[in-house]
């Protein structure tokens, strides 16, 4: 029984060997040809992709859009080369396309949230409502755009935190883009007896002396309102987002020192309490 079993196994191995040998003899040239076509296609895909990326870089087009287009070109070329290689082997791709279509339908139903993020990512990359380095605010969250991916967008703030926002929460929402700077708004009161023109001049001088305050967007300084405490002075100016709080605090310190040095009174709210006996 053992000898018979060993002979059967040897016979099966011999059959497998014969089938492989026959297959290699019959299809060896097709296999080599298909492999060469595929390798050549990979080389061409990389070359064309790099050429597209270099042209985008030459014309100073956004890096996110450049990466998306170059990768898309590479993928399309690889797919076409794969189809040609399969045809070289005599394999019909029609059943494969049908199978891929059915699988894609099932995957699409199961991954609706992820696919919506990808679709929104493509919209962001194509329409470019913002680019890397811009300061955006979306749904109460703000920061500097660190990178843009198909599924999500990464922001960073002055504290070094990385904020991940799914792209489907960006497209179709109200988006604020202040580019590389962020607006600082300051309000403080002076007494009605103080010289408002002098205070506005001091505030302008403080902002002009600070190198971090944006010169292209002129600061806005004026009387914001009148209240029971005194005149309300308002300042609006732009500073780099990555040092927003640092610049704001520095300007506040310089402003209060300049006002005190000029003898400007900054009133505090006073409440009088009368106790009847």
From TrEMBL:
Keywords: Cell inner membrane, Cell membrane, Ion channel, Ion transport, Membrane, Transmembrane, Transmembrane helix, Transport. GO terms for molecular function: mechanosensitive monoatomic ion channel activity. Residues 184-266 form the Mechanosensitive ion channel MscS C-terminal domain. Pfam families: MS_channel_1st_1, MS_channel_2nd, MS_channel_3rd. It is found in: Cell inner membrane; Cell membrane. GO terms for cellular component: plasma membrane. Residues 114-177 form the Mechanosensitive ion channel MscS domain. The chain crosses the membrane at residues 27-45, 65-87, 93-111. It is a multi-pass membrane protein. The keyword Cell inner membrane applies. Mechanosensitive channel that participates in the regulation of osmotic pressure changes within the cell, opening in response to stretch forces in the membrane lipid bilayer, without the need for other proteins. Contributes to normal resistance to hypoosmotic shock. Forms an ion channel of 1.0 nanosiemens conductance with a slight preference for anions. Belongs to the MscS (TC 1.A.23) family. Homoheptamer. PANTHER family: SMALL-CONDUCTANCE MECHANOSENSITIVE CHANNEL. This is Small-conductance mechanosensitive channel. It comes from Shewanella insulae.
């Amino acid at each position: 029984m053992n000898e018979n079993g060993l002979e059967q196994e040897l016979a099966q191995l011999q059959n497998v060997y014969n089938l492989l040998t026959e297959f290699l003899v019959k299809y060896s040239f097709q296999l080599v040809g298909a492999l060469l076509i595929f390798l050549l296609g990979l080389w061409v895909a990389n070359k064309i992709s790099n050429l597209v990326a270099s042209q985008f870089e030459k014309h100073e087009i956004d890096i996110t859009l450049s990466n998306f287009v170059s990768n898309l070109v590479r993928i399309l070329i690889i797919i076409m080369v794969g189809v040609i290689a399969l045809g070289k082997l005599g394999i019909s791709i029609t059943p494969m396309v049908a199978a891929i279509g059915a699988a894609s339908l099932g995957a699409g139903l199961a991954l609706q949230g992820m696919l919506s993020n990808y679709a929104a990512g493509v919209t962001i990359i194509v329409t470019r409502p913002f680019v890397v380095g811009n300061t955006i605010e979306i749904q109460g969250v703000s920061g500097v755009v660190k990178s843009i991916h198909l599924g999500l967008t990464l922001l960073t703030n002055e504290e070094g935190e990385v904020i991940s926002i799914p792209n489907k929460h960006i497209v179709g929402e109200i988006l604020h883009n202040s580019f590389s700077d962020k607006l600082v708004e300051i309000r403080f009161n002076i007494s009605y007896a103080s010289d408002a023109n002098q205070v506005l001049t001091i505030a302008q001088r403080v902002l002009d002396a600070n190198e971090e305050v944006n010169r292209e967007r002129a600061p806005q300084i004026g009387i914001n309102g009148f209240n029971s405490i005194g005149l309300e002075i308002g300042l609006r100016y732009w500073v780099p987002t990555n040092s927003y709080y640092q610049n704001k605090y520095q300007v506040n310190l310089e402003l209060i020192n300049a006002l005190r040095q000029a003898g400007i009174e900054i009133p505090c709210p006073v409440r009088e309490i009368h106790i009847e006996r």
